[in-house]
Design goal:
about 290 residues; alpha+beta; Immunoglobulin-like; about 55% helix; rod-shaped
Amino acid sequence: MENQNSNSSLKAIIIALSVLLAISFVYIYKITSDVNATQTKLETTLTEKESVMKDLQVLKSTYDAAIAENTTMSDELIVEREKVVALMANLKKSKGDAAAMSKYKKQFLALESKMKGLVAENEVLKKDNSVLTIQRDSTIVVLGESKKFNEVLVGQNEELSKTVEKGSKLSILNLKTTAFKVRSSGKEIATDKASRADILKISFTIAENSIAKSGDKKYYVQVIDSKNNVIGEKQTENFGDKTLTYSFATNIKYENKTVDVTQNLPSDKLEKGSFFVNIFDKGELVSKTSFSLK
């Protein structure tokens, strides 16, 4: 009888222990499942955090590139980029719980949408600026060509003016000087001796010039003897900073045709040697020659 009771008690203990063991297994399984679920959830959250961070970095790089293009939208782009930078800082500090990640995703999507709109608008501005730049460059080229053309015209006009001015000047040709002895009858006899010379006959020709200005012309004739003295009237005239001492002046009425000019210069008491004859138009030397007397 006692053996039966002992067996019954042992069976009861074994059953109780089996139940407790089964309960323990169930509890351990549940704990393990919860831990695995939590770890999986945590890993998923961390993966989402990394993904959002990468997306934000791409967003920032897009803004950096757009800002570097330096368009009129640069200030607005900088403001939006700073929002992205601030969100990246907040995301980095966050613990990565589901609620926080949901909030960050929404903010990222809003910033991404804003970025797409601004970048599209920036591209339009770039194209417009490109067109304006091409138009401006074309205008600059046209203006440059016009400037060069005008400079060429100005240069040609200046050269033409110089040519006309040069061409309008009168040419003095055939300047000659001959000494003469004058007889009591008035007859003039050429001589090459200074002691016999009574007059010097100076002659020259003003060439025909159809573009020269017609009217009264005045030339100053200067004769210098062998001792470097001006003979004749020895009058003085000032032309700017130049002073001219001349032997005589002659006035001619010029009408664009050839004019022969001859004038006598009284010249008693000449000494032998070389003589120099210069003709001036105001202060400008226009012709010269020389001769010698024995």
